[in-house]
Amino acid sequence: MQTAGNVHSSDDWVRDSKGTAYGFDAFLERITAFHGYPAPGLVIGAKMVDLALHAMPSGCLFDAIAETGHCLPDAIQMLTPCTAGNGWLKVMDLGRFALALYDKYNGDGVRVFIHTHKVAAWKEIDSWFFKRKPKAEQDSDALLREIQRAGEKILQMETIRVQPRLMVKDSVGTRGICPQCGESYPLKHGSACRACQGSSPYATA
Amino acid sequence: MQTAGNVHSSDDWVRDSKGTAYGFDAFLERITAFHGYPAPGLVIGAKMVDLALHAMPSGCLFDAIAETGHCLPDAIQMLTPCTAGNGWLKVMDLGRFALALYDKYNGDGVRVFIHTHKVAAWKEIDSWFFKRKPKAEQDSDALLREIQRAGEKILQMETIRVQPRLMVKDSVGTRGICPQCGESYPLKHGSACRACQGSSPYATA
Question: I want to staple A42 with a disulfide (CB 3.0 to 4.6 A). Which of A68, A71, A109, B156 is the partner?
């Protein structure tokens, strides 16, 4: 799915961490396959990851932070080796539409975010980003085309250093059997597993 | 990558939510591509998702819960439309090696977990699951082959109902500009964004 073989797009939209390039429409298809629908936030998020990847030193082993659970985790998962399940991606509920890639050994990296001043020049994106009109009134196609035209013009990048406390590997530690549910759990969670301590997502029978 | 075309495996290991089947070795390759390495927990996790998918009513629109951030989120993401970034997958830090799929409208579903009694019969899996020997002493190949032989024999499934409070769609609500960092954030988080309220993952310059 290299751009060269894609007749629908003239330019690359993104490159993943292995250097494989995707045209805009080809990447929309990949988004739909993974995420379920061509979410505007994921199209922009992919460009954010692309920008960050370009800024990282070649050969650097990096981890990732998504500052929101909306769309950005998937942009990171689609373009880098960092996933929600391998420990290399941290999803935080900070509510900012921003992500960071950083050297897993020294914490140095880059952060990319949507710049509120820059976005003001793009009517459809601004309206979507600040939810200025109901979803039903949005022109999805016009929005996607504006995102394509804007590219990285709505983004800002800065260097960051991740706090050392976040760079400690999260170890499960010794596992034991929960005396209440009988399942295995990390003993560091206490004398019973967290579900049995009251955090179960399930209604009792 | 249907099993029929894969000479390395004789049986399907898993089917995804669209019905596409993968042989054991073919799925190991997919795991390595997405997750970075053939993690035993993800191989088992895929079988757990497969079991849960089979138990869900045909045509049911479902959401997913991973009770740990280790491996299981990726098993769900690889085999269902639920991802960390589209809101259909909740990753919880309960520390139990368990996952659930549930009807997104009424919360009814199934939960699959590793059964501690059943696992005792499988030396390599038991040793890996309870960390009875250091990682360096593990025989990865023997472990993977035992996982393949054990299949669903180490798993248990139960019906669950998800608590109504978890089925409310998480809405960002109105967005405003944080007076400190100047970025957009959900106003429901308070008078400044959470990062500026002290939850920033970055060290200050």
Answer: A71
State the architecture of A2-170 in CATH terms: 2-Layer Sandwich (3.30)
For residues B79 and B10, which has the higher predicted lDDT (pLDDT)?
A: B79
> Under 8 Å CB-to-CB from A111, ≥6 apart: which residues?
A52, A98, A99, A100, A157, A158, A159, A160, B202
pLDDT at A160: 98
Per-residue pLDDT tens over the stretch A162-203? 999 999 887 888 999 999 999 999 999 999 999 999 999 999
Q: CA A50 → CA A14, A146, B35, B74, B97, distances in Å?
A: 6, 18, 19, 22, 34
Q: What φ, ψ does residue B79 adopt, rounded to 5°?
A: -120, -5
Q: Six-digit token pair at A48?
A: 């954010």
Window A:70-129, CB contacts with B under 8 Å: 70-75, 77, 81, 83-98, 100, 107, 111, 113-114, 116, 129
List the 44-73 stretch of B: residues with Cβ below 8 A of A: 45, 65-67, 69-73
- Looking at the structure, give the CATH architecture of the domain made up of residues B172-205: 2-Layer Sandwich (3.30)
